[in-house]
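Board notes (copied after class):
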Amino acid sequence: MEEELQHALSSLKRNKNKENVISFLKLIRKYFPPSDDFSITLWKSGIYEYVLDRRGIAILRVAEDEYLPYMSAYEKRLDFFQIPENLINNFDWKSVLKQLRDIVLEYSKRDKNFVKIAEILNDVILKNI
């Protein structure tokens, strides 16, 4: 499990192209808890936010109404190959792994099996800083 993640990360660090980013995202999606309550922010651009959750990638359009005290968001699901080049160029694998580690640690309070996954993610982060 850790070796597969380490290999994908090494490939990504060597060559940050679309294929390597996609394979990395597909791999870390496997580590998500079985809940729709968690997502990782991949990149923000203006009112658009690209997120990864256990179902894949989504683009959120977040708008704050000037006269109303709330925000509204619209979600659109993307195929992995629809990821824009700007996301690829600005992809921050450290942030993604740290967010995933925090999610897994939070979920491990409910399910102790996720403590091991959090330790694996932490080890990978520390080895690659």
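Comment from the instructor: The helical segments are 2-14, 18-29, 85-89, 93-107, 114-127. Residues 39 and 53 are 4 Å apart (CA to CA).
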